[in-house]
Amino acid sequence: MRIDSSLEENLIEVRKKWVEISLPKSMKNLTFLDVGCWGGGFVKLAMEKGAKKALGIDIIKSKPIHNIPFIAMDIFSERFLALPTFDIVFCGGVIYHTENPISLLRRLKIKTKKHLYLKSALSLKNEEPVMRILPTNELSNNFSNWWLPNEKCITAMLESTGFTNIKKTHESKPNPNNNTKICSFISSPKNILSEKILPRKKELL
């Protein structure tokens, strides 16, 4: 049976992005979680590439939605904590929508076995690690955007929440209209808690 043309077009675009982000060429014997899966294309492609298990979560179900395992879920809910861990976790276009990006990264870490792939819009200003708050709809005319970090900030946040081996896998051309670029990163979770979450100095515990 021929699938809808909009789904075919979505998969063509997803295959291009999959290579750009440097996601695994084969998903054989790997599990895959897409946090903020939108139309579900990355989950569909992970299944095609032989993923042992693949799941997409998002706060709403979006069009086009592929025939994939999908759960409508808020990542900050208790339901998210009940999910199992996954070898590969992908989170694209989410961090700047969240009120607390550090909490997002901490939650992603506890669900990541091997690698987290993180994709975000970034500010071009990169002298020091900073994240600018977006009080209105100045980024892409979207009121749901809270923050615009720069590259150094994303790296610093990943490090502070317990990720290591952080590498940039893709960078788009700068957008002169809003002084942004799109970057993708791969990182691995450390098998220790981040010292940043400790409420007191070690010697006082």
Question: Can you tell me about this structure?
Answer:
The protein contains five helices and nine strands. Strand 4 (about 85-90), helix 4 and strand 5 form a beta-alpha-beta unit. The strands form two sheets. It has a seven-stranded mixed beta sheet with strand order 3-2-1-4-5-9-8, sandwiched between helices. It is an alpha/beta fold and about 200 residues long. The chain has helices spanning about 5-20, 40-50, 80, 100-110, 150-160; strands at about 30-35, 55-60, 70, 85-90, 110-125, 130-135, 145-150, 165-170, 180-190. It starts with a helix and ends in a 16-residue tail after the last strand. The chain has one domain (about 25-60, about 70-195): Vaccinia Virus protein VP39 (Rossmann fold).
What does this entry show, briefly?
The chain is an alpha/beta fold and 205 residues long. It is built from 5 helices and 9 strands, in the order H-E-H-E-E-H-E-H-E-E-E-H-E-E. The chain has a 7-stranded mixed beta sheet, with helices on both faces. A two-stranded antiparallel ribbon has the order 6-7.
